[in-house]
User: Fold these one by one.
Assistant:
Number 1:
Amino acid sequence: VQSNAVIECDADGLLTGLVVFDLEALDEARAELERRVPANRGVTFGKVFTERWVAEGADAVADLIVDDVVFEDHRAGLRASWRGRAALLDNLRVIDELMTADARVVTTDPIAHRGERLSLHTYDFPLMGVETLNLSEFDEYGRLAFTTFFEPNDLAGAVQALDLRYAEAEG
């Protein structure tokens, strides 16, 4: 049986809460997640970044990216790594060209976050048939400093990368 669930664990990874929802009750599941785990700044910054990029295009988010941003893509066939604002903006411009005015639809939902600056999201470009997981890290000013993409079914890999980046930042 497919369902949505909000799972809460303590610092040791032990289960402390579980709420299961019907598959169609996605809004209720999101509301429960927000109630239990309010968004950190990384989630908030990610939402601002995505909304501005989708509405206005790549150049509109240039001020939301640090000069030496790191971009990694772990998806099959797309494995790549870039460094620098110009390289990331070039990549976003290519996506801009692929998204016609009618296809400029992107949904993003937070899955997990660590600390104040790290967030893991789903990204769905429904009219382009593209789904992905995205891990992002923002600096203290809300600028994108690191971003990496994973296959939508590689949640374990994405969470492992999230935990590793958090341990490095906090360690």
Note: DSSP finds four helices and eight strands in the chain.
Number 2:
Amino acid sequence: DGGDKLWAVSAAGVQRFTVNGDGTLSAAESTLSGITGALAIDCDKVNNVIRVADGDDRVKTYNSLTGAAIGAPFGQVNGYATNPDVEDNKFYLSDPILGYEYKTFIAHDTDGSWWLGDPMNSRCQHFEADNDFIESISFIPKCYSHTTNLTDSSRLFANGLELSYNYTTGI
């Protein structure tokens, strides 16, 4: 973080440590509150922010120097349990009940914006520092069968999804 501390996920939660000169870690100096099961963390050293992708399918933001929460958690608590609609602020970060678990990630950019891997929705979401949505990149994992629309080659069907591509704009 901006204070040259190391944040790590352990059985005790998300904690801040000092790395000693001999490479060992100090005792935990701070533990973030309100975390139900951290899946991914990342620090923005420029803005002294740490974001945690939590097991309740929300992203929680903290001041990396003090450990204080910043604003309300972002996203909807276990949103897909009650409503199947996919939204920019609703995430499906893990599902251990299904017997497999894709891994999520958080990564900050130099401008303060951040990326979130939303693996169960097969997408990467990009947000401004204040959580305003910027863009999304979708992908199709493990596709064994797909087809295109014979009358409209911009339409692709794969894994139960219908996708379209605008060939005039490039990637």
Note: The chain has no helices and 13 strands.
Number 3:
Amino acid sequence: LLVVALALSSNRPAYAQNPPLDRSFDIQLYEPAMGVRQLLTLETARVPNHLGWGAGLHFGYMNSPLSVYLVDQNDDLQERYPIVGNHISAYLYGFIGFMKRFQLSLGIPVYYQTQNDSYDELLGEIGGTAPGVDGATMGDLRLHFKSFIYGLAKNQHNLAASLMLTFPILH
């Protein structure tokens, strides 16, 4: 309580980071919760039994998930250019429990996408060059540590602490 009061009473300016300009972005942001009895992206406080383990594989598919729209002088949509044709993703993960209180998980996403034919048309329309978006790649490696702290009977109310670390693989 004293630490919280001291932190709230300090009157120092906050400084935001100025990251370098990055013109790329992810069209696939889904990351499944890793562990026993998880609900898609919702992580529960449950951990596996001692040396209990599991693995999972999530698949995803998107058709034309990224398009560019050109606008004319009257702010009317001139033409739609789908950039990415198909996007397939797979997320592989595994986890193991220790002492009925801890869980260690490791996960890696793999992506494959194809470039739509209208990509070259768009470059001709706006001028310029850019690398294509065809091919496969791996996402960031996720290392996850969870510690069960407290739970009541019948698993109705539980509390756990979780730490997630990511490591760039192919950037």
Note: The chain is about 10% helix and 45% strand.
Number 4:
Amino acid sequence: AFLSSKTLQDHRSHNRTVMEIAQGSERSTVKKVVLLLFLGLLALAFVVTGPRLRAEYAYLHIRQDPLDYENYRPLRKLGNAATPVLIRILSHPEPLARQYSIQLLARQQNADVLDSLIEVAEHDENKLVKDEAIDALGAIGDDKALPVMSKLSVNNGRAVEALAQLGTKGE
């Protein structure tokens, strides 16, 4: 005998269970539909919030060690999903953390961060951070940055270079 009687019995029992489920009452069908909808919504919620959760997790590591560039790597991979966290880092007390954040924001080429970068370029107390923000504004290349860059170019060579970069992007 190729199949033992125990295997055949298990197979029949499994088939019976499947048939009972398939022929189950309306109540069990409603439960199944509700369960499937719930699982689908749960999966959708993870897909939508998953990158944001990973960005927040990276932020926890950055708060513990803001000088370790490896802590910023997940944010680079997340792209625009990391933007809220990167903007939050712009107010971090450590200048290097702000610089890292600005570099990642510049890579995104996202015009939605211009106001934050303009604020840093105009008001940050650290010259290196200001210069990084100016470079980022030039790299993003949005005309909204022109008035600020013109004002900053009076006493900042980096702003002159970034302003020139802005001019070439419009061509």
Note: The chain has a mean pLDDT of 79.
